[in-house]
Design a protein that fits this description.
The chain is α/β, with parallel strands linked by helices. It is 42% helix and 14% strand. Helix 2 (33-54) packs across helix 7 (217-229). The structure holds 3-methylbut-3-enyl trihydrogen diphosphate (IPE) (2 copies) and magnesium ion. One 3-methylbut-3-enyl trihydrogen diphosphate binds at residues 19-24, 64, 68, 79, 187.
C-alpha cells in the first residue's frame, strides 16, 4: 500500500540522501556528537523501510565523505566502527528483505582492513538480491570519483577523443546505477558537499530542515510528493 498522495506511476527510480545534522541533533540535547551518529541508525532503517514501501529500486546514502577525514580522530574512529557495526548487525535483515547492499568510494589505506572485509562480505552476501539496491557512499567524493574514472581510462590507453561522457560514466564506481532523480539533504544546509557530482546533473534537489536523526519514512514520502509536483525538462521545453 502506497502512502496517500503518492502517484504510483511516477515513483522515482533512485533517491539519494545526504544524511546531515547528526552533530547538531546531539549538541542540542547536551549529548556527544557521536551520539547523534548513533541516533542516525533508526533514521536510516526507517528510511529503508519507507523506500521498500514505495517500491524504490535504488536508495543511496552519504555515510562518509573524502573530506570527513578532517574531523577529530576520535570522531573518525567512531564513524568507522559505527559503519562496521551497522553492517554486522543489519546485513542479515537487509538480505532477508532482498536488499542488495553496495559501497561506492575510495578503498584506500585509511579505511581499516576489518571494515573493508565486512564491506566485501556484505556485498558478496547480498549481491544476488533483486529488490532494492542500497548504496553507501563511504569514503566517497564526487571529484575523486571522476578523477578515478578518467585515470582508469587513461591507464587503459584510451585516446583523447574517446574520453567521452559515455566512457567516463562507464568507469564510475557503480556504472549500472541510474542517476538519482531526487537528492534529499537534511539539516537545512543548502549545499552538495561533493556528493554524486557527475550523477546529479539533472537531479531534483530537496532540502529539509529536519536533522537526520529525526528523519523518518514520512519525510521520504513527502520528498517523493514534492518530486512529483515538479516539472523536469532536461534542457528542453514544456511538453
Ligand atoms: C552527518 O552529520 C554525518 C556525517 C557527516 C558522517 P554531521 O556529523 O555532519 O552533523 P552536523 O552537520 O555537524 O550537525
Ligand atoms: C556531508 O556532510 C557528508 C555526509 C553526510 C557523509 P558534511 O557535514 O560533512 O558536509 P559539510 O561539511 O557541512 O559541507
Ligand atoms: Mg554536517
Amino acid at each position: 500500500m502506497l502512502p496517500p498522495g503518492v502517484d504510483p506511476d511516477r515513483i522515482p527510480a533512485h533517491i539519494a540522501c545526504v544524511m546531515d545534522g547528526n552533530g547538531r541533533w546531539a549538541t542540542a540535547r547536551g549529548l556527544k556528537r557521536t551520539d547523534g551518529h548513533a541516533a542516525g541508525e533508526t533514521a536510516l532503517f526507517d528510511t529503508v523501510e519507507g523506500a521498500l514501501d514505495l517500491g524504490l529500486r535504488w536508495l543511496t546514502v552519504y555515510a562518509f565523505s573524502t573530506e570527513n577525514w578532517r574531523r577529530p580522530a576520535e570522531e573518525v574512529r567512531y564513524l568507522m566502527g559505527f559503519n562496521e557495526r551497522l553492517l554486522l548487525t543489519r546485513r542479515d535483515e537487509l538480505n532477508d528483505k532482498d536488499v542488495r547492499v553496495r559501497f561506492i568510494g575510495r578503498r584506500d589505506w585509511r579505511v581499516p582492513k576489518r571494515v573493508q572485509r565486512h564491506i566485501d562480505a556484505t556485498e558478496a552476501l547480498t549481491e544476488g538480491n533483486k529488490g532494492m539496491t542500497l548504496t553507501f557512499a563511504f569514503n566517497y567524493g564526487g571529484r575523486a570519483e571522476v578523477v578515478d574514472a578518467v585515470q582508469a581510462l587513461v591507464r587503459e590507453g584510451t585516446a583523447a577523443d574517446k574520453l567521452t561522457e559515455k566512457a567516463i560514466r562507464s568507469r564510475l564506481y557503480a556504472p549500472d546505477m541510474p542517476d538519482p532523480d531526487v537528492v534529499v539533504r537534511t539539516s537545512g544546509e543548502h549545499r552538495i558537499s561533493n556528493f554524486l557530482l557527475w550523477e546529479m546533473a539533472y537531479s531534483e534537489l530537496i532540502f529539509t530542515e529536519v536533522l537526520w536523526p529525526d528523519f523518518r519514512r514520512e519525510h521520504l514520502f513527502e520528498a517523493v510528493r514534492e518530486f512529483q509536483r515538479r516539472e523536469r525538462r532536461f534542457g528542453g521545453v514544456e511538453a
